[in-house]
Amino acid sequence: MTQIIHNPTVDMLLQRRSIRAFEQNPIDEDTIATLERCAQQAPSSQYLNDWSAIRVTDPEKRQKLAEIGHQKYIGTAPLLYIYVVDEHRNAQIAQRKGIDPESDEFTLKASYRFSQAQNDAVLGMSAMMTAAESLGLGSVVLGTILNDIPQVIELLDLPKYTYPVLGLALGKPAQHPEIKPRMPRYVQFMENSYFNEADVTEERMAAFDEEVHTYYDLRKGGRPEETFSKQIAQKAVDTEVLDRGIKHAEAQGFQLDR
């Protein structure tokens, strides 16, 4: 039997949970500077630094983002960031070096660079989340800002060669939710090749389904049907997400077929 090795960092990560209610105390500038610097220190593929994060402080913009995300706490969180793919800055740099961003010579708008920049943005956001947890703050990732990508682009004045990735709300927790279950390690971590025996996977997932069922039953009584497998089945045929895809990236100048 293996044992988890405990230290303050490991214990902090093992206790991580999404926080959706925050105390309304403002976050001081030193803390903000620390969080932003930690995000910058995340890995950057080929040192392109091809992401940016917009700290949204304008109440009207916050409210609009809350409406887009259908989540009131987006508008009231002490800190709110929207992380974006950013090849616009690099396009400006390249242009000053004599490269026309509108030409085929400029490849930072191609699909590989787009996915690379998305990865870098998520890595930066993850570093900020970890730093925030270490400072006693809580956070929640806001995938719901992608409910209306064109509106987010317009709201934040995102120029060509930029694209929203995720939002992040942070603040001092005003709630202490239970830790959401995670599937067994041996289901998600594999060795050397993909484990593709459906019957065995289904058997291994049965206990996890029961754990998730219990979690939701305790948290939201009256929803005993909530298992992980049922959630996956429902989301597998959710057509609303089809309007949230990266097709909007083409309008921002990216060439995803290249």
From TrEMBL:
GO molecular function annotation: oxidoreductase activity
Family affiliation: Belongs to the flavin oxidoreductase frp family.
This protein's record includes keyword Lipid biosynthesis: no
Organism of this sequence: Bifidobacterium dolichotidis
InterPro entries assigned: Flavin_OxRdtase_Frp, Nitroreductase, Nitroreductase-like
Keyword NADP among UniProt keywords: yes
Transmembrane regions: none
Ranges for domain Nitroreductase: 14-172
Protein name, as recorded: NADPH-flavin oxidoreductase
